[in-house]
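pasting Dihydrofolate reductase for the record, 134 residues
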Amino acid sequence: MLGRKTYEGLAGYWPSQSGKWADMVNALPKYVGSTTLSGDLDWNATLLEGKLEDSIPRLKDGVDGDLFMHGSGEFAYALAVRGLIDEFEVYLNPLVWGAGKVHVLGDRGTVYLKLDGVRQFDSGVVLLTYLPQS
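structre below
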């Protein structure tokens, strides 16, 4: 699942790429949440129709396996505040960016999470799995 901005950025890059990883990414179905896009989308993408509260449960019921969301800060926030995300996976990389946004959600509010799991990789990356806190 992608928001409009992430979809437009990735769809402008990946279709022209080749190789094992690119072939896998390009073949995956994509579901795009947007209030401004309309009609058919390229890059094996489908526009989510209607309210998120209706379209996401329908999507969850209609696919085999898990849904994954990439990027999409505004879209992620819209899903989170509506209680539509079952699990958060956060990859913590051992580096500090010198520029960019300070907060994931900016000044749009707070989503409370509880830690459910920790996995450390040999590279130093840590995967933190969070669940929405009721």
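The longest helix spans residues 52-62.
Residues 1-85 form one domain.
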